[in-house]
Amino acid sequence: MPEHKSTHDLTTNNSALTPSDFLTSYDVLVVGAGPVGLATAIGLRKRGIEKILVLDQTRAFRQVGQGLDLLPNGLQSLRYLDYDAYEAVKKASITFSNSQPANQAQKPPDTLQKWHYRNLQGEIIRSISLSFDDWFQDYGEGRVSISWYNLQTALRNLLPQDQVKVNHRCINITDEPENGCVRIDCVSDTTLEANPYAYWNDPNSEKSEADSPQSISKSFRAKIIVAADGINSTIRQVLYKDSHNQNFAIPEYSGFVAISCRAIVDIPKEVQTELEEKFLHGSPIVTICHNEMSRTAVGDTQDTRILLFSRVSGQFGYVIHLPVALESIQNKSGSSWIELALQTFEQAEFPHALKELVRLSPLENMEQRPYYVHRVTSTNESPQIQPNWSAGRVVLVGDAAHGMPPFMAQGANQGLEDALIVATLIAKIAKDNHWQDRQAIETAFQKYESLRRPLMAYVQQATLRRLPYSSDKDWEEYGQQLYRRNFDQTLESLFIK
Ligand SMILES: Cc1cc2nc3c(=O)[nH]c(=O)nc-3n(C[C@H](O)[C@H](O)[C@H](O)COP(=O)(O)OP(=O)(O)OC[C@H]3O[C@@H](n4cnc5c(N)ncnc54)[C@H](O)[C@@H]3O)c2cc1C
């Protein structure tokens, strides 16, 4: 393997180089070119910090990941980070109604402009507008839908190409207080197609690239490391190893799994009719659940819900969120997932048409995904532990800090809030020329954590319990708490002693 050496990185086939062999090349190194890492890098450049580098394990940027909603808090964060990024993301996004096939254009606008939640009897229990303007009117900022890949691409295009490197999987970090920096070790692999979308990776799987004979090692140094490497964050694992946070190094199973079927055809007419007339009413998508989600323990079958969608006439698909034990789906086949969904539907007294739909699911179209969480506050430790989001010159952001299931569509939105706060604080470090003042850096990251943690705790609680959907009062309060905040005040509060 030929060695590549530059002033910015040192490539070596072993890790035996001494610290003095390295150059302190970067002010900030961002690990992970997902939405949060890229938004942080854009925010830093906007604030005059140019010596930055973003590293990602993916071998090439490819169309992976799912669709996500950016809500007023995430969009507002992006606007504050960099107006050009905000505009670029809006341009790359779609509204739900624009994405509908032309043959649905005659339907009443309500069916395309609103996402309805219906109870098992088909009655609407909540309606969420999909229109940017409605959200803007309510909260002073809109809402868009965008695929993970398009979001990544829109953000990536705002950074110089040479500041985002693919095929760099970070495997270790080492604090070097004597050099006023942190060293980061990566492997680049020429053979392995790593799944670039961290959320899909199995947190328990062995990362074997380092052992591959085809891999080469590279090391970098930076004054600050921003770890945006997703829910299965390697940096989090390194930071937490042998510390009081060690039980929180890998994500915890949230208690929910998604079982989905892309497409079901050949559905008996009476089942089709019931699904259409009772639940979809011409909408392309609907969520069906009990009137009230369980208010007690996660795991009640009452927490089951199904997102039913129809794209082509007579063809349906679904995503079911099931509150089940992890063992009940691991190492099982598609037919067992169907069986499990049917059992849960039976216990939760779901209607016949939905059970029939699931029964007809073709095995080749089935997928399952357990949802994981990095809890903001431990639930089963006494006293409760709040895993730290930083250590010295290293700070965790986005899913690496507080990943969670997507039920309230807040993962990326909260990560963009992190990006704004962290970029603002690092800019202040740069302005004060405090790069070599470790205490100042630690204090800044503690501020980030103390500002963000209470809101994150609230959002995680809402996500796992899904309470805001239950009553108008909860929904209203949640909306106010989350979407109607004054970001000027928030940013000012960072610098009040
Ligand atoms: C089905 C589903 C629906 C969702 N819907 C929404 C929604 O509607 N709204 C919302 O806000 N959020 C949603 N989310 C959550 C959202 O996708 C995540 O919160 C968001 O992507 C987190 O961004 P991130 O940049 O922190 O991490 P990621 O998006 O996971 O990106 C991490 C990046 O780090 C890279 N990486 C990982 N490990 C390493 C390593 N060791 N070295 C180098 N690079 C590494 C990965 O390749 C990846 O590019 C959803 C998630 C799922 C699964």
UniProtKB/TrEMBL annotation:
It comes from Anabaena subtropica FACHB-260. The keyword Oxidoreductase applies. Keywords: Monooxygenase, Oxidoreductase. This is FAD-dependent monooxygenase. GO terms for molecular function: monooxygenase activity. It comes from the Bacteria. Pfam families: FAD_binding_3 (PF01494). The keyword Repressor does not apply. Residues 26-68, 377-456 form the FAD-binding domain.
